[in-house]
Amino acid sequence: MKLGIHAYAFCSQWSNETLDLIDRVKKLGLDFIEIPLMVLEDFDVDAVSKRLKKVGLDIVTSTVLFEDTDITSDNAEIRAKGVDYLKTCVKATYDVGGISLSGVIYSQHTKVTRDRPTEQTWKISAECLKEVAKYAKPLGVTIALEPVNRYETYLVNTCEQALKLLDMIGEDNMRIHLDTYHMNIEEKSFYEATKLAGDKLIHYHLCENDRGIPGTGLVDWDGIFKALSEINYQGYAALESFVDVTDNMNTWVWRQLAPSGDVLIKEGADFIRSMQEKYGLL
Q1: Is the pTM for the entire model greater than 0.70?
Q2: Where in the sequence is the domain holding 97, given as residue range(s)?
Q3: HSE (CB half, 13 Å, CA atoms) of 246?
Q4: Domains in the chain: how many in total?
Q5: pLDDT tens profile 246-261
Q6: Which of 34, 146, 186, 208 is the catalytic position?
Q7: 146 in catalytic set
């Protein structure tokens, strides 16, 4: 299992001014950095690629869809814009040597609605993502769906729902990205949801129930790592905790979740490594 960290544990927006975080993550002894692509115009492909190669660090990317890129919109032009945006994210991922793009990429993040999604909603999401997956396949990029809680999406809240959408998409470079923060709200069992993902699992966000230091809250870490061990998980797993409110997506960080970002990362990484060792995933 490869252990890394989300860039938003250090900063509220990625740009060339945060390139030194790549060096910092390497010095922490982590395997990869996860860089969000919410503000693509500030993602300097050449600069990121050169720095990753220089320090010898892997990368995964993630993003979310907004109102103007919602692939479940009733407006065909917005759906097309969403597909183009995801393709651009795929290309950026490929250009910096990444092999995985994930996130809330199946519908608008925090979409305001009072209606449940219809089968037509699922269908158009699957059709759009199928096009993106076909574009990504020859580039060697895998696309992963991240189920998130009911307050952030009305479409994919659980691993079971992610598997449903994968089946509808029908492309073999589609996978699942689980997140313990969201699972704490939506799943009945951390263990069962992780086992259900099985060989479709490619990325895991390791968060405490309050996004604080892993191991200090309510998340069933033994259940998670027992399941990861049983499926022999060798994919990516990132510490994800947000340090501040951002201008480019909702993070809802209204209080200090740890004494500092460095404390959260050090203590969180130490705890996760102890769980890896306990369950034979080092």
Answers
A1: yes
A2: 2-278
A3: 18
A4: 1
A5: 565 566 677 777 787 7
A6: 146
A7: yes
